[in-house]
Amino acid sequence: MPDSKRFLHPEAIRRISRMEVRARHIVEGFLSGMHRSPYFGQSVEFQQHREYVPGDDLRNVDWQVWARQDRLYVKQFEEDTNLRCTLMVDVSNSMGYGNGPLNKYEYACTLAASLGYLILHQQDAVGCVTYDDRIRARIPVRSKRNHIMSIVESLNINTPNDKTDMASVMRTIAETYPRRGMKILVSDLLGDLEGTMKGLRLLRQRGHDVMVFHVMDDDELDFEFTGPMRFEGLESDEFLNCNPRSLREGYLEALQEFLDEVRHRCARNVVDYALIRTSDPLDAGLAKYLSNRLGMHHRN
Asked: Which of 110, 113, 149, 169 is most buried when burial is the number of CB atoms within 10 A of its CB?
């Protein structure tokens, strides 16, 4: 766990508060723009009733109760109220890159915090793991609304550091969180792709639903550099002095091969995949999550 004393520093508290407020605003804006709540969906085991609120799906209204009591109630189901989600956020060195308002690490953390807010808003449970070559912080899965602050604190590291070791990290996560649920990976996936896929496959074999948010900067996806440049490795000591225009075609070809490989292998392992640019609105990730969640209901 992070050193709790570090969070008593005024600037650290301000940073955490800013992330918490930004995530809350993203989720509230996102929800207010939706016509109806898709949270409680096609599930199998009835658990309880709750009073109808505007925006609820009328298909879930219990009309027999309405006939008896002249009041609208909706049915909730066991699966709906017991989703257990673990956010897995990459805080390795390569996540520190970025040329826009937010670098990849800041974008990934804000997306993860927003997802945490949304999941708790759904009355589901969420936990969080941050990692590089090992697990840096581990927050248990809880469903209380104020649990979001523990998640945000776990995301607040000074700077991304060290390389990524996905296979080892995911093995630890699979052993630490054995109960079936949803695992959401937020990462640039730069590193050992074999290790990453081995880890994702292990989580699927353990019965988890797995979703990947592949976060990349526009620079990495478009390679619009001009003029002589020096490129330095974020997770190695290597560097390259070159004219980027002469590399662009070959780079974009190699990038496309990498992205195609990632998509293909995720599909083969029944892992939901979404490529997210750091220039994308943050609520785009929430929309993809909800789309995936509804799809999960239909699969079940």
From this structure: 113
Strands (E), 52-174: 73-77, 84-90, 125-131, 135-142
Is residue 299 within 8 A of residue 240, CB to CB? The reply is no
Q: Would the pTM count as exceeding 0.90? A: no
> Which of the following CATH numbers is that of domain 83-299: 3.30.470.20, 3.30.70.360, 3.40.50.410, 1.20.1250.20?
3.40.50.410
- Which among 27-41, 128-142, 223-237, 251-265 has the top mean pLDDT? 251-265
Structural contact between residues 195 and 268, judged by C-beta atoms closer than 8 angstroms = no
Tokens of 200: 């994702």
H or E element at residue 240: strand 239-242
Confidence band for 4, pLDDT divided at 50, 70 and 90: very low
Dump pLDDT digits (tens) for 53-81: 776 777 778 787 777 777 787 776 544 44
Handedness of CA 98, 102, 103, 108 (dihedral sign): negative
- pLDDT, tens digit, for every residue of 146-157? 899 999 989 887
Q: CA-based diameter of the chain, in Å?
A: 77
Give per-residue burial for 22-55: e unless 16+ CB within 10 Å, then b. bbeebbeebbeeeeebebbbebeeeeeeeebeee
Helix, strand, coil shares, percent, the chain, to 5: 50, 20, 30
**Order of strands across the sheet with 209-216?**
135-142, 125-131, 84-90, 182-187, 209-216, 272-277
Helix (H) or strand (E) holding 46: strand 46-51
